[in-house]
Amino acid sequence: MSRVKAILYALLAATFYAINVPISKMLLKDVGPTTMAALLYLGAGIGIGLLSLFNIKDRENSERLSKKDLPFVIGMIVLDVAAPIFLMLGITYGSSANASLLGNFEIVATTVIALMIFKEAVSKRLWAAIALITLSSILLSFEGKDSFRFSYGSLFVLAATVFWGFENNCTRNISSKSTYEIVVLKGLFSGLGALAIALIKREPLPGILYIGAALLLGFVSYGLSIFLYVRAQNVLGAAKTSAYYAVAPFVGAFLSFVVLREHLSWMYLIGLIVMISGSALVVADTLIRHHTHAHQHTFTHTHDGTTHTHMVTHSHDHNHYVTDNRHGHHHTNRELEQLPGALH
What we know:
By secondary structure, this protein is α+β, with helices and mostly antiparallel strands. The protein contains 14 helices and five strands. A hairpin with a 5-residue loop joins strand 1 and strand 2. It is globular and about 50 Å long.
């Protein structure tokens, strides 16, 4: 799949997910938060499972998950049980617009986890973006006209983004495998896990119409979103895909304003501006291309009075960037192969 197509998939995944927050806010009046999380994932698993029946060729050409993928699959499922429950609690106790914008903190969590655990390189531009997004998250975590008042709803949303940050890195390690299999497993098992917790908490089951609406929402906002996200992640990687996914909170906030008529305070607007600045830096950072140039060099030297030539093949691993007025490389030389006496 081409890079442009992968970026389009990431943006579509973000747009589909953005529908979740304002619609969930409306359904949570009649559906418990844990039950809601369960229905969203079950809708994703069932919906994508049905879609796979019409894409037999695509399914057969994809590599299936194996035993070595089991730790990442288990981690993905467990984290996907916890994250949406915390998100639904955050929406219940806070505004859906705040939840949408705070969702961008997932970029920070994903990047830091990728750096600390999976040893991915993080540029100075990305660190600056992380600082801005963290600042905006702090601003959005406080409410009140005359003084700051900590919002527990915001805390729940931030916890959800950390869980999803870990989950993104788990999924990244299996993203080359069958997308249908990943989404179905993620949806069904995460949904059943959340449903078991809902039953233990004795949350009342909603009416059939609300169950149907939640399942349909889950298919669109979770199923299609996850499917496209995994496909994009296989090409772009965890950090870059989450960067393009940053448009989701802004789409969600806009929908909250239009659909739910939620009030946007000055603190909200300040946080939005800071969040946009940080997200712009993250997206700009994804324009950096990492690739390798292979070169052959010949050089002449003397052994025991005889001059002869060696040819050395080596490569440059470097970050490549292109802007309107700049084109540069940052090189790290690595000798790959030496062919002594090739041109004696």
